[in-house]
Amino acid sequence: MKPFVAIRKCDDYLPLQLGNALKNAIDDLGGISSFVKRGDRVLLKPNLLKSAGPQSAVVTHPAFVEAVASMVLDCGALVFIGDSPPLGNLPKLLSKCGYDTFMKRMGIQAVPFSEKISLDFPEGKLFRRIDLAREVFEFDSVLNLPKLKTHCQMVLTLAVKNLFGTVIGTDKASWHLRAGKDFDSFATVLIQIFDKVRPALNIIDGILAMEGNGPNSGEPRHVGIIGASVDPVALDSIICGLVGFPVDALRTCVIGQTLGLGIAEIAGITQVGDKLEGFPLNDFKAPKSMTVMWNLSNRNPVRRFLENHMITRPHIDSSACRNCGICLTHCPPKAISEKNGMTVIDRGKCISCFCCHELCSNDAVRIVQPFLGRFFNSISR
Fold this sequence. Notes:
Number of helices: 13
Oligomer: single chain
Radius of gyration: 20 Å
Number of strands: 16
Helix content: 25-40%
Order of helices and strands: EHEHEHHEEEEEEHHHEEHHEHEHEEHEH
Shape: globular
Strand content: 15-25%
Mean pLDDT: 90
Structural class: alpha/beta
């Protein structure tokens, strides 16, 4: 049976318009009562990358999360909000992101992810064990609420990628290190995490999205849509197509379908909801790191040859750097150090995971792409 993906238009975060759009999207899939029952303990998992205001498009908009929470509460369920941000304390981050006002008014508790549980996978899986937050599995259901954003390592961070937040903060770097430059390996980690978490529903905030060099330093871009589906792979595939990117550039979709954990082929998905005009977008800015190598196997000799000549790398702009030490501390391969009072990157050690770019609050980490990379990137679109 084809998975259903509901796409609804929504121009802004005004309560009435947003509430109607969310209700219509979820009604397209059977209604909120199909996913939440009276008395359930429901965990909302937004994208809470860092302390950032709603207009930055870095985090799932608080009005979006509030609207979903209101629908769940109306079902007679209890609502909680949880995440494991790479930096900072969750309650403080929620306050700085504008969540605390509605959480206090609605009696919603924050759930920091702090205790690990080891989850085993059967033989034949690439990773036999992954440690996730125990707290995630203490709820009757999880509603996954990602933000539509570009991502310098994985092209887009949507429903599947958002579940990486169930990995406790300090463990995130180790997974980047294990995957290294093998983007398919990292995509497999993300898909296996989804396989364990299995959200009851995935709802994407694509009203104010982020384009360019996301997920932290990109540019806010009004897209005006929300998307919902039980299948996060199918949802991500549809969204990827709507912003004008080839679906095979989103490796979580490719790997998810290969492993039988979702549908990535557009022909195999039933899209419902509003009739959209102006889509797919033809000018949505991709991250500079998006290259034709995403279409090549990591074992392909052509890819290995081209990596040294076209792969994007982070570069620290010394004029913007404040030497705060965050990138140095959180670099998975320990490729960043301080020399002569300047923060520098060892190219030989760098695995282009872009954690430094993702965590920098001073916009000091730039994405640099060699000429050959820019050339191949231009002819591949």
